[in-house]
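Subject: Protein record for review, amino acid sequence with backbone structure tokens
How to read it: Take the token row as a discrete description of the fold.
Enclosed: The protein record, placed directly beneath this head.
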Amino acid sequence: MFFSSNVLRALAPIALVALAVPAVAAVDPAVSQVERSLAATSSMTATFVQTNGKGQQLNGKLVLKRPGKARFDYGSSANIAMVADGSNLYFLDYDVGQKNRWPIAKSPLAPLLSSNPDLGRIASALPVKDPGVVLIRLRDARRPEFGTMIMAFVKTPAAPGGLQLEGWTSIDAQNKKTTIKLDQQRYNVAIPDTAFQFAEPQKKRRG
């Protein structure tokens, strides 16, 4: 199953547009705008399409509630889920009965779920030809295992901070890429905490 490793890879680092654009480290107002947009996002729902480097795709739904909560459901695409419950991030594989856990603060989702987004140390803006697009490159030199994340935003007045998150592409330490493209984004809607509960995977008995 290709999706297990690629789910983790997709959430580790982020470009939906032109991965060939060179990473240029520069102080840019776009980084501050992204921080304001994330801080103004109390919740978000969206559908997503996840594509790995071989072109294989999975569909699902994202539910996010800041700070600290998120859920990636893959529905009929795969019997897996990724859930952040406010303290920890869990990867749940129901086919094999496996659960992995990481503290959110030490996970790749930390920039999205932090109560006080501070990207200055790890973020730089990438040059783009379209003035309506913002690309932010995230790379933490202290945590190289997270790889590189390039977040893609479109300037939209109705979105928090004037930016709508379009998705991301992750590039891991082995240069493998996984893209998540968001659609049907809705911001700052009511989401109950029960949305981040989950059933425990049951270990499969060997026959």
Q: What stands out?
A: DSSP finds three helices and eleven strands in the chain.
